[in-house]
Amino acid sequence: MPGTADRTSTTAAFGLIQSQPDESTSVVALEGELDLERAPALKWALVDSIDAGFKQLIVDLTLVRFMDSTALSVLVGVNKSLDVGARMAIVCVNENVLKIFELSGMDAAFAIYPTLEQALVHVRGTTTRIG
Amino acid sequence: MTVVSHSARKARWGAAAAAIGAFCALVPQASPIALAAKVTTDASTPPPTLEAPSSAHQHGSGRAAKPQAPQPSAVAAAPTAAVPARAAIEARPGHRGHHDQPGATPGGQPPAPTAVAGAGARSDAAATRSAHEHGRSHGAQRTGGSAGATALSSAPVASVDAAAQVAGTSAHTQKKGGGGQRGGGQKGGRKHKEGKSTGAAVEAEATKAGGSSGKKGERAPVGAEPVAAAPTLAATLASAASASAPAAGLAPSAAPVLAAAGLSTHPSKASRARRHASARRTADAARGVGALATTVPLATAAPPTGTAPARGVRGRSGVGSSYSHSSEPAIVHTITKIVGVVPVPARILIAALAALALAFGLRSLLSGARTRRLVRQRGELLEDVGLLQAALLPDPPARLGPVGTSVAYRPAEGPAAGGDFYDVFALEAGQLAVIVGDVSGHGREALPHTALIRFTVRAYLEAGLGPAAALQTAGTVLERQLGGSFATVLAAVYHPRERTLTYAAAGHPPPIVLGKADASAPASAVVPVTACSAPPIGAGMRTGTRETVVALPGPARICVFTDGVTEARVGQDLFGEKRLSRTLRALPPDAGAAELLDSVAAQASARPDDMAACLLHVHDGSGAPTIVRERLELDAHAIGDERVRRFLLECGVSPSEAIASIDRARRELAQAHTATLSLNYEDGLPLVAVHGENSIRAAALTAVGAS
Q: Which of B541, B565, B635 is best to mutate for the A interface (most A CBs within 10 A)?
């Protein structure tokens, strides 16, 4: 998959990697199950990114094989609390996770892309989303 | 009882004394004990030579079990050691006097002075008796071990044989004492009588026990043998002392022993006076042994002055403390004596360690108690949440009109309890409404929201709004009230006359609708269209934009559930809707929601979220359930979404028809706030109708969506 070459660290046991492709973009990549136990870690990673002044957030769920309503509520909450001018995108290809977004009707709220490159393009504001 | 058998016993005591001697190397003050130990082994030999304390201790540790060369000055040494020893001995009567209940232990007090005078032949028996008394009296209140130790320590002047005898019979006397105490009860008069008789028995027994010892005592009332006897007792004491400090326990015990030996040769008036004072303290006791006491010259006192070593000071202080703390039990007294011989630095160290151990123990105890309390409180809180949740959940009638209903709720296995809600109620014209929802967030903060959302949606449904309209209105109203949380809700209305179920979801999974299985085919299931699902209430977006109508011409089961059911775990996998559907099919036709959730729970390996389910049973009729109408409401923002086309395709609309429909909707939106795509199925094919709406409500909803 394109865009994963520079993110080999996502295989770390911790399951949550934060990286900064540029000075204004924060990418939070997760792995495995994103459930009640892991949702707080995601929340704080995103809140910390916002507090650190990042205007462009990307949540990379490429390696997440399952997401529950708790994690979804974290994403909804963060999405609602974004400042004016801040943009958020989600990278997701897993059918189960995409189904969660669809069933919850939240796929309309998020910019969801299959690759990190497309998500980066979205948050940088140089294209329209193709979700 | 022969001397031979006693010597064998002595050898054992000697071994014990040797061990004590080894300890004494570390505690110089305890060297008399070493001497005592050594002498003990020589009890049957001629009087031993007194050695320097250090060598004596070496002796004791190295060759204690072997008969030693004569050591004539042992007797001389005894008086020297007598200073502290006497103190210890004298302390004992006082403490014993306290312990001995007047009735239960008559004569308990005087025996000590008598024992001190035990160098004489007559006093041998008395000493033994005193030992018996002591053992008995303690046996009445304490364990056998301490009783035995005290008994022996109180018979220091008895001959070796007598001491051995005492050791052998202490258990017996202890039992006797216990019986006496029990028999005596607490009444003074009776106790007195009992005490007297017991005293007599003890005396007789003492005489019997001290038979051979008495002989020995007569032969050598004053001299090496009593001295030898004292160490024997000391050794015996050591063996009787507690395992934690056997050596230390011996040190103070040895002192009185030596003291007794020495004092027996130096009777004095002072001792007598003290004896009398002690006797006065317990009149009964004094009377019990009065005859004995008078016939026996009491030698409790008269320490050779000027020769008292450092330990003598401790001994004297011990007297005072013993008397002043006469209320202390024997073990405390023994400990007090033990403390007396421990060097100050070691004492400080031990005290520090003890304090540390106490602190750690206390901390462990406290933290343990705290942990237990927290666990209990957590359980109670979760239970409370469950109870509150249950209180908020209604108990609907088992049947509403033609539809059988059942609901069930299972709290999560963990802290996530709370948040799920449901309601089943009748509407006008025989309609039946169902609300099932799940508030994001869990626990107590979710509870008020569950009630708020449930009653709001219910109110709109009862006011006559359809499911989608009710959710849309509720979403508009509740958007600001939910704060940071949001809720997924499914609202459904069953129309008995039309035999249709109309449902709308706000971020909630669609219901499972199963037809009835028959011989020709398994139960058919309605496949819901999930594209363009409406978002939850409180998510900051317009909701109530989707609505589905399912025709139920024949028997059917409708299962509305929360995602806690489908997000239950089966190993590494989610339970999922397919597994839920299979579970529902596998249930008996008349099974309710409780059975469904029980079955889910039985299959699941973990349930991290609440589970709520509502089952509707539609009876009679024939035919499989099918979707007869789909509806999607679009605003200017949503019309550009790729999802709209996908929705139309999923509904079975041809791609060209889909594009045409979207174009029509877009034209409508040019003049109206919203455009609604309505798909009506005729013979399985959808007919798309588009109409715009420009109402105040639509405008308001659009405004909400825009915000």
A: B541
Contacts of B642 in chain A (CB under 8 A): 130-131
Q: What is the pLDDT of residues B104-142, one digit of tens each?
A: 334 334 443 333 333 333 434 444 444 444 444 443 344
- Statement to judge: residues B513 and B637 lie in one domain: no
- What CATH number does residue B513 fall under? 3.60.40.10
Whether residue B584 is found in the same domain as residue B688: no
Of B312, B342, B372, the one marking the end of a domain is: B342
Does the beta-carbon distance from A69 to B488 stay under 8 Å? Answer: yes
Summarised one tens digit per residue, pLDDT across range A18-68 is 888 888 889 999 988 888 788 888 888 898 888 888 888 999 999 988 888
Cβ pair B36, B257 in contact under 8 A: yes
Q: Where are the domains of chain A?
A: 5-123
pLDDT value at residue B241: 41
Q: Supply the range of the domain harboring residue B148.
A: 3-342
Q: Is residue B347 part of a domain?
A: no
| CATH entry 3.30.750.24 includes domain A5-123 | yes
Residue B414 lies in a domain: yes
Which among B624, B646, B669 is the end of a domain?
Answer: B624
B234/B247 Cα distance (integer angstroms):
10
Q: Which helix (H) or strand (E) holds B267?
A: none
Question: Of B199, B368, B392, whose CA–CA distance to B284 is shortest?
Answer: B199
Model pTM greater than 0.80?
A: no
On whether residue B278 sits in a domain, the answer given is yes
Q: Which residues of B touch A105 (CB under 8 A)?
A: 505-507, 532-536, 539, 541, 543, 546
Q: How many CB atoms lie within 10 A of CB B243?
A: 7
Identify the bridge partners of residue B409 per DSSP, sorted by sequence position: B612
Q: How confident is the model at residue B390 (pLDDT cuts 50, 70, 90)?
A: low
Residues making up chain B, counted from first to last? 707
B509 touches chain A (CB under 8 A): yes
Q: Which two tokens stand for residue B153?
A: 């320590």
B222 class by beta-carbon count within 10 Å (0-12 exposed, 13-18 middle, 19+ buried): middle
**B134 and B247 part of one domain:** yes
Is residue B134 domain-resident? yes
Residue in A80, A105, A130 closest to B507 by CB: A105
Check whether residue B260 and residue B125 sit in a common domain: yes
Nearest Cβ partner of A66 from B509, B539, B574?
A: B574
Same-domain check for residues B279 and B418: no
Q: What is the mean pLDDT of residues B418-446?
A: 84
Instruction: Please tell me whether residues B568 and B643 are part of one structural domain.
Output: no
Strand ranges across the sheet with B403-410: B399-400, B403-410, B611-618, B556-561, B512-515
B597 pLDDT higher than 90: yes
Same domain for B653 and B619: no
When divided into structural domains, chain B yields a total of 4
Q: CA torsion, points B364, B367, B372, B378, in degrees to nearest 10?
A: -160
B441 contacts in chain A (CB < 8 Å): 73
Among A38, A76, A113, A130, which would you mutate to test the B interface (most chain B Cβ atoms within 10 Å of its Cβ)?
A: A76
Is the domain of B598 the same as that of B556?
A: yes
B539 shares contact with chain A (CB less than 8 Å): yes
pLDDT at B212: 40
Of B194, B193, B151, B191, give the one whose Cα is nearest residue B172: B151
Distance from CA of A17 to the nearest CA of B (A): 23
Nearest chain A residue (CA) to B528:
A103
